[in-house]
């Protein structure tokens, strides 16, 4: 899927290029497979179904939702075919490798306290430096090439994360609770919608406005215990007004930070996952004006939410929405799940998931206000854990090969 000319496919188009797009959309889970179509490659038509699938993909990836496959959507869709480990990743100065596997690599490096730069799916020089630092830290040759050996180090890690991680998280959170205080800060919580506007609706009778308020209350309980002054933009019965009004309200509170809570809805029911948004121009070229703390909090928050809830990571995005732009303090919006997606709805119908979201907010807030020295720690992993894990893996391998030798000689 590397076209020579600029791609622009829209409703009404047909042919092999449309077939290639459909194939990708099926892989990303945005386009349900249609059993009545036997020869998709010949008959592929950019119909309403495809347009909805493109929109749901664009929405999840923070692209402009227009249902048209232009250059950007095409490039992101093309990058979505790569999973971490599918190909060897390295830094190519003349043409950065791009794709979901690069983003997964960057996210992994961030979790370990390395600094690959923005998690944007572009393998640039900062990511390269972080890969080399990671390799050196775990005793590999720091050549910057993410091949089988480096992948094994990451995969070993994934196993170590999955076992008993919830407990480890809780323990670390308790340690943080006792050793660190958010006391005295003012946080504005903005449950989306309300006052007659329910927002999105979905499976299991879920209503966005109610869910947002529910999570906000769970966050409030936890933050109040830390001595944080929590202010709501709305309650059950009051209307928060427009996003402009909510921003003005936060400014009048002289808040340290604003967190807006929403859920999503896609026309197809195929989109799923969580995303965060901070103030900044989506156009990655001149990085110009943006909120550094907002970005940092948005990244940390999403990571904590994904680690605790298992919702899909739909990444953190720069936006210029009124609530983000008009607030004088860092403002972040969290979209926790798609209500019309069966899996997300099941998760969100469980009060425990809502507690996990609330915990994620508290931990991310603590981390954002911690000093630079503590940024190597994460809610999920620490480098020490990785070193210990790799040592035990090597010991096991040595043991296994020794046992094999015994058998052949014996
Ligand atoms: Zn909403």
Describe the structure.
It is built from 15 helices and six strands. With 410 residues, it is an alpha/beta fold. The protein has three domains: 16-79, Muramoyl-pentapeptide Carboxypeptidase, domain 1; 84-160, PGBD-like superfamily/PGBD (Muramoyl-pentapeptide Carboxypeptidase, domain 1, Orthogonal Bundle), CATH 1.10.101; 168-374, Aminopeptidase, CATH 3.40.630. Strands 2-1-3-6-4-5 form a six-stranded mixed sheet, with helices on both faces. It is globular and about 60 Å long. It starts with 15 loop residues before the first helix and ends with a helix. Bound molecules: zinc ion. Zinc ion binds next to loops. Residues 247-366 form the MurNAc-LAA domain. It comes from Terrabacter lapilli. Keywords: Hydrolase.
Give a summary of the structure in a few sentences.
This protein has 410 residues and is α/β, with parallel strands linked by helices.
The CATH topology label of the largest domain is Aminopeptidase
Structural class: alpha/beta
**CATH domain class of the largest domain:** Alpha Beta
Q: Kindly state the percentage of residues in helix.
A: 40-55%
Could you give the count of β-strands?
Answer: 6
Going by CATH, what is the homologous superfamily of the largest domain?
A: Zn-dependent exopeptidases
What's the assembly state of these chains?
single chain
Strand line-up across the major sheet: 2-1-3-6-4-5
Largest sheet: 6 strands, mixed
Please render the helix and strand layout as text.
Blueprint: H1 16-27, H2 40-43, H3 48-60, H4 71-79, H5 100-111, H6 125-137, H7 148-162, H8 165-179, E1 186-191, H9 208-225, E2 229-232, H10 243-253, E3 257-264, E4 274-279, H11 292-309, E5 313-319, H12 322-325, E6 331-338, H13 342-348, H14 351-368, H15 383-409
Parallel strand pairs: 1-2, 1-3, 3-6, 4-5
Antiparallel strand pairs: 4-6
Zinc ion binds next to loops.
Pfam family, one: Amidase_3
Keywords: Hydrolase
Protein name: N-acetylmuramoyl-L-alanine amidase
